[in-house]
């Protein structure tokens, strides 16, 4: 029985989809104005693991992810510049070019990290019609008001606004979340903003003026379009709880009168020296930057799996190095295994218990390590293959390692010594290889080289 922690109830709940056997997941996707850093990517590894666990448990999954290419202002609320417009101006490109470039890099990172792509990618700018229609519905139902700069959602009209974040409207400090301008309540938020100031690249005519959608409305409109008015699971990082997801619930439930999402799931932050990764504090690496430092994307995936998704994970290059060592060791051990018989039921059921307990991946990794170290266990390889459908660590994939010519020369020399039965020399050369980080195995007529000490 799969149990998932629901942010709405702050409890682990038994997972029951709306339609038996089918699961709809909506994940808030990237704002494509810059590269996604490894912190962002931790959140997408989490939703990927969620999806893989559901598939492991026999569910059919439809996964939808949006691409925010308009309307996300530099604050998560309604102030500041539009991140896309700002980046376009800075880079001297069109907003569309910027969006396509960073979205492409993002998808490349998905490939590198073995994150399976969603079934539907949806861009905010390609769903203006749906967003405008949803706002019209909210206007008709009397949930909105217009100010000089936009159309706002009146949060005082909704009972339970803030239930996800357990916000108390009156408890919010004035101006702490957002500038008031002409807003009636501190928590009110823009559904549609009118174009002001400099001419925008991205603007559409609606409600009698040129303007653009607020950030939150895209997720409500697109999730309804692709998954219906009530969805099973919605994911994102914890920073989305107080504003973005709170507002998604408000506008969706006001429009449909139905419960928007049954299970809200949020991933904790990747931190750097205990603080959120950021430009000023550090830790803002991209996957490509880690590669330049000699890491493989899979080292980072392994690193993420060592922590539960609801626990903060502290990133340092040393921590990543430790993960890299463990991952390489694991792959080496797996590469030695041969298929014997079918899956090992005992280990698989222990594994399933871990993943079904709110995706306890550190525990599941523990089960995997116990299995590889258990000399008596049968069916190791088939079991690991099955487990890896959830880990997504490509444990059975053999990489073509390039052997440097210097190493090959030593290994050839050793092979010759061995053939001449000069075992003293061959042992010395074996040690030399080991010191250089290579292990040589005799294999019938020749030898095999692999990385390791
Ligand atoms: P954004 O492109 O800013 O909308 O962020 C994309 C996703 O990354 C969102 O789900 C955020 O909640 C998440 N996120 C942002 N920073 C971090 C972090 N340091 N660790 C984990 N997730 C993060
Ligand atoms: Zn969203």
Explain what the structure shows.
The chain is α/β, with parallel strands linked by helices and 453 residues long. It has three domains: 17-267, HUPs (Rossmann fold), CATH 3.40.50; 296-303 and 313-391, Anticodon-binding domain of a subclass of class I aminoacyl-tRNA synthetases (Four Helix Bundle (Hemerythrin (Met), subunit A)); 405-451, no CATH class. It is 42% helix and 18% strand. The protein has 14 helices and 17 strands. The protein has helices at 38-56, 83-91, 95-112, 128-140, 215-227, 241-256, 287-292, 297-305, 317-336, 345-356, 361-373, 380-391, 405-419, 423-435; strands at residues 3-6, 11-14, 22-27, 60-67, 120-123, 144-146, 150-153, 189-194, 204-206, 209-213, 231-237, 261-267, 270-272, 275-276, 313-314, 438-443, 446-451. The strands form five sheets. A five-stranded parallel β-sheet has the order 5-4-3-11-12, sandwiched between helices. It has a five-stranded antiparallel β-sheet with strand order 6-7-8-10-9. It is elongated, with a radius of gyration of 26 Å. The structure holds adenosine monophosphate and zinc ion (ZN).
Task: Name the features.
453 residues, alpha/beta, Rossmann fold, 42% helix, elongated, binds adenosine monophosphate, binds zinc ion
Provide the fold topology.
Elements: E1 3-6, E2 11-14, E3 22-27, H1 38-56, E4 60-67, H2 83-91, H3 95-112, E5 120-123, H4 128-140, E6 144-146, E7 150-153, E8 189-194, E9 204-206, E10 209-213, H5 215-227, E11 231-237, H6 241-256, E12 261-267, E13 270-272, E14 275-276, H7 287-292, H8 297-305, E15 313-314, H9 317-336, H10 345-356, H11 361-373, H12 380-391, H13 405-419, H14 423-435, E16 438-443, E17 446-451
Parallel strand pairs: 3-4, 3-11, 4-5, 11-12, 13-15
Antiparallel strand pairs: 1-2, 6-7, 7-8, 8-10, 9-10, 13-14, 16-17
Helix pairs in contact: 2-3, 4-5, 5-6, 8-9, 10-11, 11-12, 13-14
Bound molecules: adenosine monophosphate (AMP) and zinc ion.
